[in-house]
Backbone:
């Protein structure tokens, strides 16, 4: 698969390498035209799907770009859309000819409407908020049309702001609390600050940001997972998939023009040397002994670029401490690992039995150096540690795991089977390939449960489907997983351009479809759970089916594989027993009821802006929500403990200990884990029963 795509890249490089760009001779539209030409060339030749660029395609781009710019219909007017409609059937031709007229006019109009909206907002805050007036706000953005003119647009902003103020007022106000007028003034101040922050952020977005949105309105018509990364976004994607970056180890936010420390990352330079605190404001930045540059009012991403840098280098920060002191702090940058990205495990105890639990947020890997930390090796190491703690069963939690590296999921599946096919892949031209685990070593051959939900996608679905087909694991979770059965490759667009100072970004393009070893695709259908535990949002979220332009489901022939028969009878018994119990479980039925209530909430349209009526509305909502209080109060009766190998280190570090204690507390409220342990407990009891019977029969 990677070899095939390398061939495509070589062909494309030869075709486009003739572009030569000089920074001092290039303005933004020229760069954008070249970028559009490269993206079009790559997506047309490298994408799994072949799509005609015609008028229907043009209409889809038009609707998508307008929707991305103004999803809540608070900027454009009917007249604006009418003016832009003359491009509705011409965008395909403009893309073919690398023309930007539609983007230019839409971008210009949008910027003017943002300016207009800020004037509306300023005017709204000059008016009195009369909560005795009988009026309503429609919160269903899909059903409301664009405003006919500026007066209607002003009214839309006025009602939205009034609704935000009213919501805060009614939450804080009661007959024996603070003065109503004081609460109202504070609420208005809060909403005004939040609204101004929104416009500050909008003003920080430049032309490149919006052009990347336009490019994505184009490429997303091929399928929902083909995506253009502008340079900054590509760097963020790399961090998310590898779980590490070079920097100081702090998370930053911006408010009122200031960059503030909002979190210190455990293990990073700032945490290690206790140099900064949450709440400190960074005033200026410079390289070691260089002159410092003020970052007040600077775009947050630009500030972060100045602060980050290669490991081993030194950055100087001028910091205003929480107590008001101003200090210059020198920090030696280092590689920072985002622990929330990585696999972690804990020991679960029930009825004198120990079970292992591994949480895997994503299938991470360092594509620049695969031998560095990756999820397959980490899960293997967690299994070894758990085995050293004497576990009788293992839970691998893939909930909310959206996927990642294909290589790591093939290797990880191999930890649980002797050897054999893991996944089938079909490429352009119906070329098929089977990816195998060829290592006969099995790192865990005991009872295994996988947890999934509607956000378990891609690589999570590959391992779930494979282990289900092998009859190697019980799948517990939502009715089905996300349903993303496609594979993407990241294409560096800079390889097509020579002699340029510009970074063109990268394109994530769908190149293949993957299939279960039984021949079926998980595309749209997902992986069906063996034991279903409902989710409160199950009726309003439908995974890949909710996405625009998903690739269709199909199937191919099965691969040759041998099922794992060690636990077949026990798995069937456990599935049957637990499903029967769940049918009678009051909490489970309550979750179904709450899911139905949440679905009905989506149909609510008109919300009162009269304070008396709004209080009645809120009271009614709270009464209905209170029927489901037992869901949030749920506690399982499991005991979560540190592993022997990690206990001394974690106990010696307060932040690590507190983080682990908080994690254990969240696990104690998790019904999915409770049912997973119940399944392992039933298997363990069945194994012991069979062993006792076998011994007795032998004695007789």
Residues:
């Amino acid at each position: 698969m990677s070899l095939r795509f390398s061939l495509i890249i070589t062909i494309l490089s030869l075709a486009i390498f003739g572009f030569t760009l000089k920074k001092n001779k290039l303005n933004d539209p020229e760069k954008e035209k070249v970028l559009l030409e490269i993206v079009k060339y790559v997506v047309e030749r490298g994408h799994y799907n072949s799509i005609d660029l015609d008028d229907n395609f043009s209409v889809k781009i038009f609707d998508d770009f307008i929707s991305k710019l103004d999803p809540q219909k608070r900027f454009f007017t009917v007249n604006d859309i009418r003016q832009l409609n003359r491009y509705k059937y011409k965008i395909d031709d403009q893309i073919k000819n690398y023309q930007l007229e539609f983007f230019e006019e839409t971008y210009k109009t949008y910027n003017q409407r943002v300016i207009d909206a800020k004037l509306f907002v300023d005017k709204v805050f000059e008016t009195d908020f009369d909560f005795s007036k009988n009026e309503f706000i429609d919160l269903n953005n899909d059903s409301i049309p664009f405003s006919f003119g500026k007066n209607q647009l002003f009214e839309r902003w006025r009602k939205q702001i009034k609704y935000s103020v009213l919501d805060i007022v009614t939450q804080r106000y009661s007959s024996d609390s603070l003065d109503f007028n004081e609460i109202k003034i504070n609420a208005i101040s809060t909403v005004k600050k939040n609204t101004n922050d929104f416009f500050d952020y909008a003003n920080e977005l430049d032309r490149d940001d919006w052009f990347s949105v336009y490019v994505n309105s184009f490429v997303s018509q091929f399928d929902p997972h083909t995506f253009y990364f502008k340079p900054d976004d590509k760097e963020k994607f790399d961090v998310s998939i590898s779980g590490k970056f070079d920097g100081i180890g702090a998370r930053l936010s911006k408010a009122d023009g200031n960059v503030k420390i909002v979190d210190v990352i455990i293990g990073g330079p700032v945490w290690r040397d206790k140099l900064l605190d949450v709440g400190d404001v960074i005033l200026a930045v410079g390289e070691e002994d260089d002159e410092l540059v003020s970052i007040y009012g600077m775009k947050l991403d630009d500030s972060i670029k100045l602060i980050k840098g290669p490991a081993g280098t030194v950055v100087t920060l001028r910091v205003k401490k929480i107590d008001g002191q101003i200090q210059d702090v020198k920090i030696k940058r280092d590689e920072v690992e985002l622990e929330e990205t990585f696999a972690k495990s804990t020991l679960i105890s029930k009825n004198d039995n120990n079970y292992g639990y591994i949480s895997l947020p994503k299938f991470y890997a360092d594509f620049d150096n695969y031998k560095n930390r990756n999820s397959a090796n980490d899960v293997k190491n967690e299994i070894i540690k758990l085995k050293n703690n004497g576990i009788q069963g293992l839970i691998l939690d893939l909930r909310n795991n959206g996927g990642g590296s294909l290589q790591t999921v093939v290797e990880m599946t191999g930890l649980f089977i002797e050897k054999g096919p893991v996944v089938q892949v079909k490429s352009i031209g119906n070329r098929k390939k089977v990816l195998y685990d060829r290592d006969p070593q099995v790192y865990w051959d005991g009872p295994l449960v996988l947890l999934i939900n509607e956000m378990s996608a891609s690589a999570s679905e590959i391992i779930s489907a494979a282990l289900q087909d092998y009859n190697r694991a019980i799948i517990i979770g939502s009715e089905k997983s996300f349903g993303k059965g496609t594979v993407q490759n990241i294409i560096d667009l800079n390889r097509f351009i020579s002699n340029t100072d510009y970074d063109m970004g990268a394109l994530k393009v769908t190149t293949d479809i993957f299939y279960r070893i039984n021949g079926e695709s998980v595309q749209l259908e997902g992986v069906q759970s063996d034991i279903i535990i409902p989710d409160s949002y199950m009726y309003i979220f439908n995974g890949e089916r909710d996405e625009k332009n998903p690739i269709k489901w199909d199937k191919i022939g099965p691969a040759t594989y041998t099922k794992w028969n060690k636990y077949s009878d026990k798995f069937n018994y456990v599935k049957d027993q637990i499903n029967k119990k769940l049918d009678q479980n009051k909490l489970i039925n309550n979750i179904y009821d709450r899911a139905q209530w949440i679905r009905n909430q989506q149909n609510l349209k008109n919300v009162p802006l009269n304070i008396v009526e709004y209080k009645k509305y809120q009271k009614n909502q709270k009464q209905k929500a209170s029927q489901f209080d037992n869901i949030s109060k749920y506690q399982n009766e499991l005991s979560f403990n540190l592993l022997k190998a990690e206990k001394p280190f974690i106990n010696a570090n307060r932040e690590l200990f507190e983080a682990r204690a908080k994690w254990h507390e969240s696990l104690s409220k998790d019904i999915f884990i409770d049912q997973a342990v119940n399944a392992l407990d039933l298997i363990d009891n069945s194994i012991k029963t069979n062993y006792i019977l076998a011994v007795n029969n032998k004695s007789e």
Summary: The mean pLDDT is 90.
